[in-house]
Amino acid sequence: MTEQVRLVAAIDFGTHGTGFAWSFASERDREPVHRRINLFDDWEGQPTNYVKNLTAILLDGTGDVLEWGYQASRRFQVETREHPEYEYAQGFKMGLLPGVAKVTDSSTPAGPGMSPRELITAYLKAFRRFALDRIVAGSGVQEDEIAWVLTVPAIWQDRERQIMRDCAVEAGFPEVPERLLIAIEPEVAALYCRFDSGHSGVGEAGDRFVVVDAGGGTVDITAYEKTEDGLTEIGYPSGGSLGSTYIDRYLLETVLPKRLGTEFMKRARNLEPGAFVALSDEWERNKRNFDPKHRRSVILQMSHRLFRILEDADTRRLAAMQNGVDDAIELGYDEVMGLFDHVTKPLLKLVDEQLRQIGSKSVRRVMLVGGFAQSRYLQERLRSHLSERIELVVPSKPSWAVLLGAVHFGLEPSLIRGRRTRFTYGVAAAMPFDIVRDPPSLRLIRYDGTPLCDNRFDRFVEAREVVEPGREVQRSYYPVTEQQREMTLRLFVAETTDPRYVTDETCRCVGELTMDMTPTLSHPPAERRIDMTMIFGGTEVEARAYDVKSGIEVKTRIRFS
């Protein structure tokens, strides 16, 4: 932490909700359990006090932001009939993952024309302005004295983490990496669990535990071991699009059309799209309080705006499916369980796989955190599934875990003592040609006549290796031709530990960097050495290049494609 930084502010940017918290940098010197962390829970338009605002945005016909958060939802419900050009987006964070559909609210007729990246940037811009005003007013610090922490899911890879940083910088956050840290959600949740004074589930050094971070859009699972001075990741990050928002999506896209018919759903989205937002709010309240111990149905009241669209045929259909109830949506106990199990069943399988990989006998506890962790149904299902084997611990404030843990991380990033690499990292390089193993098609001749093999995988770190933060790995490279003016190195990742060629099936290119070699053109090729250093163990991969002859060092930002 630089001397200029007087305050650390964290933003837990979630699929369903987003919140911020902050603490003075001087709190770093306190025992973590006694640190004073400030939260905000007084959002305009929120149904109840909560540390997160809704991750939603309302745009006008030109793409300008009209409202964000709960106010975007409320205004969309009220004004959409008069302004059909309005576009409402919610759950756009997950759109960054390739092949994953956005968890947009089904109330939008077509969804905004803006990309997930544009929506994220617009939302973060508005959120940053709001958070900054309140932090400055409450602390007296200046904007350039704040270091920010932005959380991302563990299942996000280098590409998505980089996009999030780019979005944040475009939204007005600091460009300097030291003042904008990217934090991994289950990792900082693990820090919270370690310091939680209400119900700490982390014991002595050597204690091993699994963290299940169940949020709105994603479920992230990994495992940690407590050390004398921090935590070391021992698990294999896994997860998926199994957050509570997908239960909502299944309700709106599968259950309701069966009740009301697809034609009614289309008609309602066109005439009263905002009415489904109100129904979603009604479901959200019931979902949080659903207790599997009480075999009760869930009643969702239909708003007048939605009810008036019902035609006689729709009403008869609804009554026939609900034992005569035609003015509300009645979900039976088994039906609600089925909605939850749409995500809980695969979640339990992921927990089992994590325990299998790290050895279930060595794990004492499973820590359940995140907004979805407040669900009594999820708690009971996971507790029953673990049975007597492993204790399930739900911290005192599970929905606060990532947010508060992110502040601890910003104050003391060194608390994470090691992270497990997901891939083998390396670059495409020309290496000595092996006449027995290497195919003739990859043979090339260096300026001095030495045969080289092109497209070799020059490994820096291997997959599933536990790497301490700041670990530097250096490789030296020389030009292949005498008048080579630049050197382009393509960065690859592989799922296997020791690929030979970058063209192997498990390898894929994730970016490239180019080094200017013109300052040393007058020197012999053997003296034109470029040292490339890659830094691992952080939440992002860093690289720098050093021209040994000229003494010029260039810090390189890898652009993941």
UniProtKB/TrEMBL annotation:
Residues in coiled coil: none
Ranges that cross the membrane: none
One Pfam family of this chain: HSP70
UniProt keyword annotation of Heme present: no
UniProt keyword annotation of Transmembrane helix present: no
Top-level taxon of the source organism: Bacteria
Keywords from the UniProt entry: ATP-binding, Chaperone, Nucleotide-binding
InterPro entries in alphabetical order: ATPase_NBD, Hsp_70_fam
The protein's name in its UniProt record: Hsp70 family protein
